[in-house]
Amino acid sequence: MLLNAIEKPATAGHSLPPYLLELLGQARRSIEVDPGFTRRCLDEVSTLLGSADAIVIDRDIVEPQSVPEPTKFTKGGLAPWQLKRVRAYVEEELDGTILIEDLAIVAELSPGHFCRAFKASTGETPHGFIVSQRIRRAQRLMLDTNDTLSQIACACGLTDQAHLTRLFRRVLNETPLAWRRNWRTA
After folding, report:
1. pLDDT tens digits, residue range 103-143?
2. Which one of 3.10.520.10, 3.40.47.10, 1.10.10.60, 3.40.50.980 gives the CATH number of domain 63-186?
3. What Cα–Cα distance (Å) separates residue 129 from each residue in 50, 63, 96, 115?
């Protein structure tokens, strides 16, 4: 049965983590049937956590915080300052071509060492990270603008709408047009 309203804990004796887990569970159960309710659940969780960027919507929105910022060194990984600089560089250059060699220069490492260290630190390849960032930006633009998918693809550093569609389908198992329609009507 689908819930029509967000249920808050009945008593003050409930601890916050179970309530958050319940909200996330309600969101997950309703994501395909009622995206609007899912958004309300996630907005409530966001409010409780104090950060809208901390929310992951199952498979429909790429996790914004996909690269963790380690507080200590990962053996064989990047130092926190290197990871921070690489993330900032990727965000700045997302609308253009990003080469591994350029990322390695930003991190002050050789390209081969950089790729191994990035994977050790984040669990994904630099290319995979860049693709997820491009898809995340495309999702934001699809929700926030009325630009065509072709324009959005170019703004995300992709060659054309077909390229966007291929990557989007690979990551989210859905076309950008279908995703946009689902989330715009919610």
Report:
1. 999 999 999 999 999 999 888 999 999 999 999 999 999 99
2. 1.10.10.60
3. 25, 11, 15, 11
